[in-house]
Amino acid sequence: MLKAPQIRFCRASDGVRIAYATTGKGPAMIEVATWLNHLEFDWQSPVWRPRLVEMAKNYTMARYDGRGCGLSDRAVQDLSFDANLRDLEAVADAVGFKRFILLGCCQGSGLAIAYAARHPERVSNLVLYGAFARGRLKRNPSARDLEEANMMLKLVELGWGRENPAFRQVYTTMFIPESTPEQFRWFTDLQRMSTSPENALGLIRGFDAMDVTDLLPKVSCPTLVLHARNDARVPFGEGRMVASSIAGAEFVPLESRNHILLEHQPAWKQFLAEIARFVHGQGRADAFEETAFAELTQREREVLELIARGLDNTAIADQLSVSPKTVRNHINGIFDKLNIPNRAQAIVRAREAGMGTRTG
User: Given 56, 187, 315, 354, which residue has the most CB atoms within 10 angstroms?
Assistant: First the structure.
C-alpha cells in the first residue's frame, strides 16, 4: 500500500516556508498548489487520495501547500498572485527536477501558465484542468456576477472557521455536486483545515482579479487543456478560451458536473487516461507500459496485455506456450504488485495505460 510521502520545507524568495513532498515513480511532474489542499490530510481524504495514488503509480510527483495554506506558513501578509508564483518557482528548484510536466488545476492553472511562459526550458508538458486565465472580476462581469462574487466572499468571512459546516457546504456543493456523503463531508471539513478564513479571503480576492491572458501566446510547450462541460465553479468557456489561445494546445471536454473529479466518475478515468496519452505520446505505448508497470516482469506485462485484450487463462496459456497454472501464478503476481483485487480492475488499469489495443 502506497504511503503518504515525507514532507519537507523550502523557502520562497521572501522567506516564507513552503511545505512540499514528492512521491511515486516515472516522469517528473509538479502539481501547482490550490487553496484547498493539505499535504497531510489529502492522503486520508476520499476526495484526493485515489487520484494521488493513481498519479504516483505513473509519475514522480511533487506537490506543495501554497503560502497561507496547509503546512506552509500561515501568518503571511503577501497572498498575491506574484507571491504564489514565487512559491512555485521555489518548489521547482527545491525538488531538483531539471524538466518536468506541470499540472495546474483551477486556480493553479493561472500560475502554471505564468510559470510555463516564464521558464520554457523547465516545462516539458503543460496539463491544465478546470483552467481559467481570467479571474471572475476580469471577465466583463455583470452586476449579478459582482453581487455573487461579493456574496461568496461574505460566506467565507462568516462561516469558514465555524464548527457548523453549513456555510462551507455551499462551496462543497459547487465543487463536487456528484459526490458520496463521505466525500462531501471530507471536502467540507478540508476547507477549514486547509486555511484560515482571512487567508481564504485574501487568496480568493487575488485570484478573482488575476489576468494572465497576455501570457497564453507565450506558452511554447505541448499543452493539454481538460474541462468538465458542466463545471459550476469555472465556466466551460474559460477552458476553451485558454486552449484556443495557446498554439497547438489540445482541448478535451469531460462529461461531469464536478469541478473536482472523483474516482466513481467516468470522467475521472478519462482524465487520467488523457494525461497518460498526451504525456507519453500515441506511438510510445511500449515505453509507457514499462513506466506505468515498472514493478512487473516482462512476462507479467505480456500476460497483462493479453488480459486487456479479453483473453481467458486458457487462451493466454496457448498464446504464450505455457501451462494454465503458470498463467494463474503470473496473474496472482500482477494482482499483488499492482494492489488490485480482480481481473476487471486489471483490465481497467491496463487499458488506461494504452494496453489491449494492439493486434500483433
Answer: 187
